[in-house]
Amino acid sequence: MTVTGQMLIGQQATLGTHGHIHGLNAATGQVLQPAFGGAAPADLERACALAQAAFEPYRLLPLERRAAFLESIASQILELGDELIERCLLETGLPRARLEGERGRTVGQLRLFAAVVRKGGFLGVRIDPAQPGRQPLPRVDLRLRQMGLGPVAVFGASNFPLAFSVAGGDTASALAAGCPVIVKAHSAHPGTSELVAQAIARAARQQGMPEGVFSLLFDSGRDIGQGLVADSRIKAVGFTGSRSGGMALMQIAAARAEPIPVYAEMSSINPVLLLPHALEERGEQIAPAFVASLTQGAGQFCTNPGLILAVDGPALQRFERAAAEALGHVAAQTMLTPGIYRSYCQGVASLAAHARVQLLAQGPEGQGQQARGALFATSAAAFMACPELRGEIFGPASLIVRCADLTVLQQVLRSLEGQLTIAIHLGEGDQPQVRALLPLLESKAGRLLANGFGTGVEVAHAMVHGGPFPATSDSRSTSVGSLAIQRFLRPVSYQDLPESLLPAELHSANPLQVPQLLDGQGSG
Ligand code: NAP
User: Fold this and answer.
1) Domain range holding 106?
2) Do both 252 and 360 map to the same domain?
3) Which position among 20, 183, 506, 511 has the lowest Cβ density within 10 Å, counted as fewest Cβ atoms?
4) pLDDT confidence of residue 483
5) Residue 425 CA from chain centroid, whole number
6) What's the distance, CA 213 to chain centroid?
7) Name one GO molecular function term (predicted).
8) Nearest to 162 by CA among 264, 215, 214, 240
9) Is residue 184 in contact with ligand 1, taking CB distance under 6 Å?
């Protein structure tokens, strides 16, 4: 397969005529060929019309067909072979091993959702059979199952060009829920996006899917992306990116005649708590592990540890020295885009210039678009007084907040916005403190983890990659793991319908063998 610069509208490769975008070589800044034609309003209209037309036939397909489609996408992505990795490497500057791992994760996610679809538990079937003899009134027959919301718009992430982009978690979970998907390609990796879209189109053809089950649009500005969210045929949005981008799309969705949910993953600084016993017993071992997590992938992880909270004293000083030493050995790394690099440099410069912040260490200088790590420290009083210290700096920078004692540490925690993760480093002797802190920690983050760092997000059934605002726009959901399918479903209840009219999963004989909650009992 080759990169042609074409979008995909339904099964049709189409060269956009509304301006164009180019991929850039992240390492050199050089413009990559070909140009990608931007979608015109007529292209958006066609993609939405096709998605709407596909919704019903797609969601009514047997679950086995839906699962086979997801598996076929996974196979087709693998079939792209090295061409996909090579193009992605050029566009993102991410190392080959990371991209190969990410491809594995992407394929794994698709297969996981295929298994979820086959098992049928996501349908959430509940059956309350009629009780005609109940006194004083008979009970009606009620049967509930979940169904897809309708066409979903997906805005992929720049930092996961495979696992959170065109065929990434949002697309996989929406397709699994029975929803057609229209992806607005991220301008940071258009060639990668086109290749993956071609793989999806081949899978759709091979599996006989309705034409509009998937489309990919390039946008030479912001109108197409915004128009997609505004279009009445779109029923939900998945987004990963900046706070300003997520908020802009949420506002458009809320202002529609029919408002729709936007599942936006935005900003998180992922506090790391170093509790006194852990710090005393192994602070110098935690330090290099922290630096490795901070600088991994040039710090371009939504779960990057951007904030350290600890009680001030000799043990924290030893940790700071060890972390500074480790950071000095980490070479600068290429960032994803000139824009992300620029905003990282601005964030670091403004912390360095802040009167109440101390620069503890920086990594070796890099070239071009390469980010060097940066470690800062401040007092709890300054942190709580200066809101500008609490924003996310996307990249390998972190701020240590020195707290006078655990009560102050708790006040700092209380002052924080919602987070994707909070990591707690604890020794045996810290357990009573952690127990006391847990209710506060639970109210602040989607995932709490002990003696580790939030980077590295397992795609699993019990994973939550979400959290209170602004980590996400809707803390009730996750964008990673099998529970992500719930975002694109809604329950429908059927009262007293003859069984012959009901979907098979609601039949009493349970021909599909899906989990059913019968009169409140069972595995549903
Ligand atoms: P971004 O600028 O928000 O872009 C994300 C996507 O949304 C892109 O497709 C972008 O279009 C589109 N977009 C952004 N603003 C828009 C608007 N006002 N109207 C319509 N479309 C809009 O984010 P990014 O450049 O990918 O990532 C950088 C930032 O995202 C980082 O600074 C970091 O804070 C955050 N981030 C957070 C997470 C997380 O999970 N929490 C993960 C990754 C990144 P274009 O392609 O045209 O730019």
Assistant:
1) 7-266
2) no
3) 511
4) 97
5) 25
6) 21
7) 2,5-dioxovalerate dehydrogenase (NADP+) activity
8) 240
9) yes
The side-by-side arrangement of strands in the sheet containing 521-522 is 489-495, 142-148, 125-128, 516-518, 521-522
Q: Write out the H or E segment, with its range, that includes residue 518.
A: strand 516-518
CB neighbours (10 Å) of residue 319?
Answer: 25
Strand partners, 92: none
CA of 159 to the centre of ligand 1 (A): 10
For residue 190, the surrounding DSSP H or E stretch is helix 190-206
Q: Report pLDDT for 512.
A: 97
Q: Is the pLDDT of residue 26 over 90?
A: yes
Q: What is the pLDDT of residues 299-311, one digit of tens each?
A: 999 999 999 999 9
Tokens of 137: 């009134």
244, two tokens: 């300003």
Confirm or reject: Cβ of 143 under 6 Å from ligand 1: no
Does residue 339 register a pLDDT over 70?
yes
The two structure tokens encoding residue 173: 């979970």
What are the distances in angstroms from CA 352 to CA 246, 334, 361, 362, 398?
A: 28, 21, 11, 11, 12
Instruction: Using alpha carbons, select from 334, 396, 395, 332 the residue that is nearest to residue 364.
Output: 332
Three-state SS for 208-224 is CCCHHHEEEECCCCCHH
Quick check: is 489 in a domain?
no
CA angle 343, 93, 38 (to 5 degrees): 75
Distance 346 CA to ligand 1 centre (A): 17
Report in angstroms the alpha-carbon separations of 193 from 45, 158, 179, 287, 455. 20, 11, 20, 37, 24
The answer to whether residues 69 and 203 touch, using CB atoms and an 8 Å cutoff, is yes
Do 297 and 240 lie in a common domain?
no
Is 261 buried (19+), middle (13-18) or exposed (0-12) by CB count in 10 A? Answer: buried
Q: Which atom of ligand 1 is nearest to the CA of 21?
A: 47
Q: Is any ligand 1 atom within 6 A of the Cβ of residue 96?
A: no
- Same-domain pairing of 257 and 341: no
Tokens standing for residue 51: 């998605």
CA of 461 to the centre of ligand 1 (A): 27
Q: Vertex 445, ends 225 and 146: CA angle to 5°? A: 60
Within a domain: 522: no
φ, ψ (nearest 5 deg) of residue 130: -60, 145
Residue 524 has pLDDT above 70, yes or no: no
- Kindly state whether residues 213 and 294 are assigned to the same domain: no
In angstroms, what is the span from residue 162 Cα to ligand 1's centroid? 15
392 lines ligand 1 (CB under 6 A): yes
pLDDT, position 422:
98
Residues 217 and 307 both lie in one domain: no
User: Is the same domain home to 261 and 279?
Assistant: no
Ligand 1 atom nearest 471 alpha carbon? 41
Which sequence positions are flagged as catalytic?
265, 302
Number of domains forming the structure of the chain:
2
- Select from 423, 450, 477 the last residue of a domain: 450
Q: What is the pLDDT of residues 200-224, one digit of tens each?
A: 999 999 999 999 999 999 999 999 9
